[in-house]
Amino acid sequence: MKSSKFSPTQISKILQEFESGKDINAIIREHGVSKATFYKWRQRYGGMEASELKKIKALEEENAKLKRMYADLALELDMAKYIIEKKL
């Protein structure tokens, strides 16, 4: 997964600019963000503080790591079952 070039505090500040009434076109032009990315951030992180945003990012990274670990273990288990079946 590609990591964001924006830190959680930067994302929070960008969303706060929008909430304070700044025009969306000016925000995306100033920060170099696409409209789709901005709206995705707003949907996921709208109304959150920077500290909450950091916690969520850390949890998402940990979840991705655990999913990769599970996939590796499931693959190893399938390989072990296949080898055992061939020997019997």
UniProtKB/TrEMBL annotation:
InterPro entries: Homeodomain-like_sf, Transposase_8, Transposase_8_domain. Pfam families: HTH_Tnp_1. GO terms for biological process: DNA transposition. Keywords: Coiled coil. One of its GO terms (molecular function) is transposase activity. The keyword Coiled coil applies. This is Transposase. It comes from the Bacteria.
